[in-house]
Amino acid sequence: AASSSYQSIADNPSLHSNRDYEVGIIYMDDYNRASTAQVSPLNSVNLPCGLSDKRNYIQVEIPTNQIAPSWATKYKFVIKPTATNYI
Predict the structure, then answer these.
(1) What are phi and psi of 51, to 5 degrees?
(2) In degrees, to the nearest 5, what angle opens at C-alpha 20 toward C-alphas 86 and 74?
(3) Angle at the Cα of 30 (from 57 to 43), degrees rounded to 5?
(4) pLDDT tens by residue, 25-71
(5) What is the pLDDT of residue 53?
(6) Looking at residues 9-37, what average pLDDT do you find?
(7) Are 19 and 47 in contact (CB under 8 A)?
(8) Which residues pair with 38 in a beta bridge?
(9) In this structure, are residues 47 and 14 in contact, taking their beta carbons and an 8 Å threshold?
(10) Which of 25, 20, 74, 9 has its CA nearest to residue 49?
(11) Would you say the pTM of this structure is higher than 0.85?
């Protein structure tokens, strides 16, 4: 059995266009000790300029073969731009 919850803490309702983003997952235990961000080869997404008039978001799916560490009781997703210079 599994359960999950979602908490939105972002004030920005849309991601910026013309950027690449990388997504990772961090596992935590009952004391909020955390792993380093776990990433996969398919963890990047590009939001092209053509989407600048849309609400941009990322939908994340955890692969079924990605098993959480035995000590983990919760997880969170992290996101970061993959580059610092944008044109």
Answers:
(1) -100, 10
(2) 135
(3) 30
(4) 999 999 999 999 888 777 787 777 877 777 777 788 887 888 899 99
(5) 76
(6) 82
(7) yes
(8) 25
(9) no
(10) 20
(11) no
Rounded Cα distance, 32 and 43, in Å: 24
Alpha-carbon distance of 43 to 28, in angstroms, equals 20
And the tokens for 68? 């959480």
DSSP letter string, 18-75? SEEEEEEEEEE-TT--BPPPB--TT-EEEE-GGGTTS---------TT-PPPTT--EE
Q: Which amino acid is at 22?
A: E
- Owner of token pair 């560490």: 69
Position of tokens 């398919």? 42
